[in-house]
Structure formats: C-alpha cells, structure tokens
Amino acid sequence: MTALSNLNAELKQLANVKEYPVNFTLQNGQIREGVLVLPAGMAYPPQNQPLIVWQEGGPGGSMFSFWANQVERPFALLPHFNYPLLIVPLSGRYGYGPQTYNALYDNNNFGATDIDELAEIANQTVTKGWTSRGRIGITGCSYGGYFTLQSVIRHPDLYAAANPQCALVDNIVEWTRGYQSLMPYIQGLPPWSNLEEYRRDSPIYNTDRIKTPVLTFQGTEDFLPITLGENVHNQIWNRGVPAKMVKFLGDGHGLSRDDYQIYAAQEQLIWFRTYLR
Q1: C-alpha distances out from residue 136 to 32, 160, 210, 252, Å
Q2: 154: in domain
C-alpha cells in the first residue's frame, strides 16, 4: 500500500488498530486485493473471530481508508471494539482496469456480480480459519446499504447480521424520481423494457428471501425515500425475522450530527454483539 497523504497520521495513531493487505483469488481466476483492519492487540491472521465486511457507497468510485470513526465508514469504530473489518473493492470499482469496472454493468450483472464476489471471499475467510459460519456481518451506506440488503437476499445463509444504512432499495422508483441518468447505464434498459430484471435487482421486491437479522439506519430527509426503507423493514419484521429500524429525524443521506453518530454507533455495536457470537 502507498500512503497518499499524511493528513490523518495522528488519527491513525489514535485509532488503535492495524491494517493488513490481503488478497483473494476468485473461482474465475481474478484477484481481489483489500485490507483487513484488526484491533491493535489481535494477532494476524485472526483465528475464528467475528468478522464484518463493508462496502462503500456508489456504485463505482474508490474505496480507501479515512481512519474514520463513523457508522457509515467504521474503519476505526468496529475494530476498536474487537471486530475485524474486511474492505475489498470488487467489480465496478476503480483500480482493476476498465474491463473489471464495466463488468458490473455488462449484460444483467448489476445486483449480482460484486455481491457474489464478496460472498465467495467471505466463504474463503471461513476456509482460512479467520472466522466461522454464524460470525460474519455485513454493513454499508447508500450503495453499500443496497449491497448489504442484496447480499442477504442472494446469500441468505451466509451472513449472521446486517446493518444497511441509507440504502437504495427500489431501482424502479430510482428511475422515475432519482438518478435517472445512472439507472439506464447500470441496468442497460428502462424498466418498461426489462421489468423483471429491475425487480430482481431491487431489495424491496425480494425480502421474502431474507433470513438475516437486519438493523436499518436512515435519515427522515434522505433523498432516497424513507417510506421505501420503512416498507423493507416492515416486510422483514412481519415475516418474523429479527429487524430494527432507527430513523434519524431531520438528517439526510448519511448522518451529519455527532449525537446521531454516537447513538448509531451504540446501536450498531449492540446489533453485531447480539448476532455475531
């Protein structure tokens, strides 16, 4: 790894964590490189520890460490409380070249390819002995929240706890009232020409597959309609799956207030402590 700046050098020391470069070879032969962030006192590689995987917002864009202590980017938060955090850029991210970047949007790959790559990687962490079944959590905000929900839908027996935040949940609604220029690019066609694909790629229509306990965060003023997040939560709850939704009054896409960050961090830690045994 190469340091891009020293702006966060003091924060890095205060974080009391260590990061280790890791890589994984997928079944198709491609390599995915990432970072495993551990508590400073935990030996590398970890042995049968609870493990949380994280994805950045987007889609697209870079994934790098801010040494942040936020629930949206919990690089220091979760490891500080003894939860290893695995950060791996996948298809659709910068750093692997245009072919891998575009792979997420080719054909009907959106909502599947990168989700399946991380599931393959999570299973490899079990094989390596870093963690075990029933001890893997997943979280992220915005596209990361979408990624979290889509992951527990496509791989319902893999993740033991999920924390989607400010999540995109309905690509059809996003076409009609959201980021209209992005949807035709990532989906390939408008919804009236490919409706079933839009439904497959939208968590709101597939909650019947969710078995994983789900903790949802969303601001009431999020540009992604909170009513859709409430709908997803209610569908999960009504099926008897453990679910909790925390709504942050007056906040938007992600949490801007320090008191909200502190409260959300407590909720996040309680959730993972409850379900990652």
Answers
A1: 19, 6, 15, 28
A2: yes
